[in-house]
Write a structure and sequence with these properties.
single chain; about 250 residues; mainly alpha; 3-stranded antiparallel sheet
Length: about 250
């Protein structure tokens, strides 16, 4: 089909004629030409542009931004970039589904999910903002640690779930030591440092471990996480890490 009327394109795309008229009015999707009788006609190029418009709109991009995006680079580059965005969002949605499935299964057994397991992965922009804050606050070593961690996890045989299970086991032992009255100076945090090294995919020096302890003391997310494990643990764990680094 060389040309389609506005009604034919609407049927193929699964949208309304009214929507296509609106896109024409705002300059987002012009017809290939308008006949003397006022009928709008569309060709392959307009149909492909509509595909991108609908995909970007479904992804939450405002209409007033879509036009600039479509006019800014060639179609193949746009499709590749948009696919990457959708892939990242799909991974986040998959994480949400897995979290909800785990919550349902846990509550069916009459138990409650651990607080830190209730929430799904952050949106890519939220994760990027969080990483930027960490780098700005803690410097180049944090940027290197984030990059190393991402690279290692991408190739690690044990996924993030396995890593977090291991961390919960280590933290459980440390909480038991804390609640049992072990002083920070006598605490054994070697397993925790080994876990950090595993996340980074490289050795974690005592000095770097102590740097993380400073972050645990100042970042509200870590404070909340460790206080949820046991009141006062958010102070005890950093003190134990610093004491080990000083030995």
């Amino acid at each position: 089909m060389d040309e389609m009327t506005v009604g034919e394109l609407a049927r193929v795309a699964g949208v309304t004629v009214r929507l296509l008229h609106h896109y024409d009015q705002i300059g987002l999707l012009r017809p290939a030409h308008v006949a003397a009788n006022g009928y709008r006609y569309y060709r392959r190029a307009e149909a492909e542009r509509l595909q991108e418009i609908l995909a970007l709109k479904a992804g939450g991009v405002p209409l007033d931004e879509i036009g600039a995006m479509l006019d800014g680079q060639d179609r193949l580059a746009r499709l590749i970039a948009h696919r990457a965005r959708l892939e990242a969002e799909a991974a986040r949605v998959t994480g949400m589904i897995e979290t909800l499935d785990a919550t349902i299964e846990t509550e069916r057994k009459g138990r409650r999910m651990a607080l830190e397991n209730l929430y799904w992965p952050p949106a890519p922009e939220e994760q990027a903002a969080h990483e930027a804050w960490l780098v700005e606050t803690y410097g180049d070593w944090m940027a290197e640690a984030i990059a190393a961690s991402k690279s290692h996890l991408a190739h690690a045989p044990m996924g993030m779930d396995g890593k977090m299970d291991a961390l919960r086991e280590i933290e459980g032992a440390l909480v038991a030591a804390y609640e049992g009255g072990v002083s920070p100076e006598r605490a054994d945090v070697a397993a925790h440092r080994d876990w950090v090294a595993g996340m980074w995919g490289r050795p974690c020096s005592p000095e770097a471990h102590a740097g993380l302890a400073e972050m645990y003391l100042s970042h509200p997310d870590f404070i909340a996480r460790y206080e949820a494990l046991s009141p006062g643990f958010s102070q005890w764990l950093p003190a134990a890490i610093k004491a080990a680094a000083a030995r």
